[in-house]
Write a structure and sequence with these properties.
The protein folds into two domains: 2-120, Rossmann fold; 124-293 and 323-340, Dihydrodipicolinate Reductase, domain 2 (2-Layer Sandwich), CATH 3.30.360.10. The chain has nine helices and 18 strands. The protein has helices at 13-21, 36-45, 56-62, 74-86, 101-114, 128-138, 168-185, 294-308, 316-335, and strands at residues 2-7, 26-32, 51-53, 67-70, 90-93, 118-120, 145-153, 189-197, 209-216, 221-227, 240-245, 248-252, 258-264, 267-268, 271-272, 278-279, 283-284, 339-340. The strands form three sheets. Strands 7, 8, 9, 10, 11, 12, 13, 14, 17 and 18 form a ten-stranded mixed β-sheet that branches. A six-stranded parallel β-sheet has the order 3-2-1-4-5-6, sandwiched between helices. Strands 15-16 form a two-stranded antiparallel sheet. The chain is globular and about 65 Å long.
Length: 341
């Protein structure tokens, strides 16, 4: 039986608590929050018999836990994760790993030193269309990838810590898109140039918009355009994607539309025909059937990996490559220079 401490009882904690409650192999033994009323509220909301604490240290000392769910704010992740790992617990945590690259790298070192597992939530890997896109690209039907383009445009009014961050888009949201690029291509980034800015109509204190150009290890390019203060023509939360390959291109609108366009003998099949009619060879790609998606799928994989002694795709040793893209992009924006990894 997995005995779980839930650290952080804010809005996102409900998703994790519901998942754990539905598992026959798990029991939530403690809820932790620096605001005790939040922990008590979640205990009541989900009818839990767990004890509540204001400190992860106290909870670890008093409970015989095996797993800690870290659902705290990014600035608290380092302390919660390293304290829990050193106390002998595995950690399943929300993204991003931490609020700095240095801390994130030390968290990976801590997992290695303690021989405990630290898995990071990347729920947006677990989408039927994204999986189908990845599988299609890996068939090499269109040949080698040359350019991956992602466009993210939304206008959420969160309130709270996100609207006070220096780099809210890059530090808190862009990791999903950066991680998805790595997932789709199977490649890591080797350099980045990033320009961050904050449109005059923005309600964020920090830079809510950015343009990034990454070079990947195979020489391909990943370009990202994003904004959290878009004023129209919004994309989905998953971004809008175009992947250019040597024999065609693939498009995903971040929702239901997923298709590709192939070339024939080096010439595009679409365009103006001899009869001056528009022709099209767009071919749909069917979404991959999945029993679970998003958080549930990711957490399921974490538990399965723990049971089998393997590592899930969102293991910290892999996720460090995604978080590195985040902080190297922020470094580039601050220095106004290309940053190499």
């Amino acid at each position: 039986m997995h005995k779980i401490i839930v650290a952080g009882c804010g809005m996102m904690s409900g998703t994790w608590i519901k998942h754990a409650k539905n598992r026959e192999d798990s029991q939530i033994v403690a809820l932790v929050d620096i605001i005790p009323e939040r922990a008590e509220a979640q205990k009541k909301e989900y009818a839990l018999s767990a004890n509540t604490y204001a400190s992860i240290t106290e909870a670890l000392e008093k409970e015989d836990a095996t797993i800690v769910f870290d659902i705290t704010v990014p600035s608290a992740h380092y302390d919660v994760v390293t304290t829990s790992l050193r106390a002998g617990c595995h950690v399943f945590g929300e993204k991003p790993m931490s609020d700095s690259l240095e801390k994130s790298e030390k968290m990976v070192e801590c997992a290695n030193e303690t021989k405990k597992e630290y898995f990071v939530m990347q729920n947006r890997r677990y989408i039927p269309q994204l999986y189908a896109l990845r599988n299609f690209l890996h068939t090499k039907t269109l040949g080698k990838i040359g350019q991956v383009s992602a466009n993210f445009q939304l206008d959420p009014h969160f309130g709270g810590f996100r609207e006070e961050m220096d780099s809210p888009l890059i530090a808190d949201m862009a990791i999903h898109t950066f991680d998805a690029c790595r997932f789709l291509t199977g490649k890591n980034a080797v350099s980045v140039y990033c320009h961050e800015f904050n449109p005059f109509w923005s309600w964020y204190q920090g830079n809510a918009s950015a343009i990034c150009v990454f070079e990947m290890e195979d020489g391909s390019v990943f370009d990202y355009r994003g904004s959290w203060c878009a004023n129209g023509l919004n994309t989905s939360w998953e971004s809008e994607w175009r992947i250019a390959c040597e024999n065609g291109a693939v498009f995903w609108d971040g929702a239901e539309k997923l298709y590709y366009d192939a070339t024939a003998d080096g010439a595009a099949k679409t365009g103006i025909s001899d009869e001056n009619e528009i022709t099209s060879s767009f071919r749909e790609i069917a979404p991959m059937p999945m029993a679970n998606t998003y958080h549930d799928a990711c957490i399921n994989e974490m538990f399965a990996a723990l049971q089998s002694g393997t590592r899930p795709q969102t293991d910290c040793r892999d996720n460090i490559h995604s978080i590195r893209m985040v902080y190297k992009a922020i470094e580039s924006a601050k220095t106004k220079k290309t940053v190499f990894f």
